[in-house]
Design brief:
Number of domains: 1
Distance between the termini: 15 Å
Helix content: 40-55%
Radius of gyration: 14 Å
Oligomer: single chain
Number of strands: 6
Largest sheet: 6 strands, mixed
Shape: globular
Number of helices: 5
CATH superfamily: Mannitol-specific EII, Chain A
Length: 149
């Protein structure tokens, strides 16, 4: 089960660009984990973006970073119906964002979570369901559904 919390879900992002989107996702993390400073999150994720865009195509971005001071994985989700220019590998706007923050010493769990999210968002029906969801609970249900064998 993925550790996404309702308070970390943004049903309609306001972001017009990449930096705005990263700021919104950082603020969403802070909403569910007040001990996490949104500026620190933004800086860590932005630094990771300098290595290469986490816009993986098909309207999806998975910004992620490892951060000292965390004791568990922390996720946030954002949706932009209008789309955000995120420098994705397919040069298309991003509509679905899943941000992953990981403690520096939790490589296995981090990679497992990244792989799980990648598999989930690779399926067109899941992406469509996330775009059409009306409530945060619907988003949580999609993320927490068991994976097919």
């Amino acid at each position: 089960m993925l550790q996404l919390k309702e308070q970390s879900i943004i049903l309609e992002m306001k972001a017009g660009g990449k930096e705005d989107a990263l700021q919104e996702l950082a603020a969403a993390v802070h909403a569910s984990c007040t001990e996490i400073d949104p500026e620190t999150v933004f800086s860590a994720v932005q630094e990771r973006e300098l290595v290469g865009s986490t816009g993986v195509g098909n309207g999806v971005a998975i910004p992620h970073a490892k951060m000292s001071g965390l004791d568990r994985l922390v996720l946030s989700f954002g949706r932009s119906r209008k789309g955000v220019n995120f420098e994705a590998i397919d040069n298309r706007p991003v509509h679905l964002f899943v941000q992953i923050l990981s403690p520096t010493g939790m490589a296995y769990e981090y990679l497992q979570t990244l792989a799980r999210i990648s598999r989930l968002l690779k399926v067109e029906a899941n992406r469509r369901s996330l775009l059409e969801a009306v409530t945060k609970q619907e988003i949580l249900d999609i993320f927490n559904a068991p994976e097919p064998e």
